[in-house]
Amino acid sequence: MESISTARRTEDIALDLLKFVAAQANVGSKSAGSTGFGLPSSPKSDDQVTHLLELYARCREAVEAPVEK
Length: 69
Hints:
Blueprint: H1 2-25, H2 45-64
């Protein structure tokens, strides 16, 4: 039963790390509207979701990586 709680703990830590990194890098936040020139500056919602999922996977890898001594 302890392995389930440990796995959940690493997922929670990875999610907290994702929230921190996303907030610092303004990932997933709504950007200002376009100036009317060229393409709109905000990425599509699907692209944002894909980037957030990739970032979460990287956060899980970082949290679950063995600690070097």
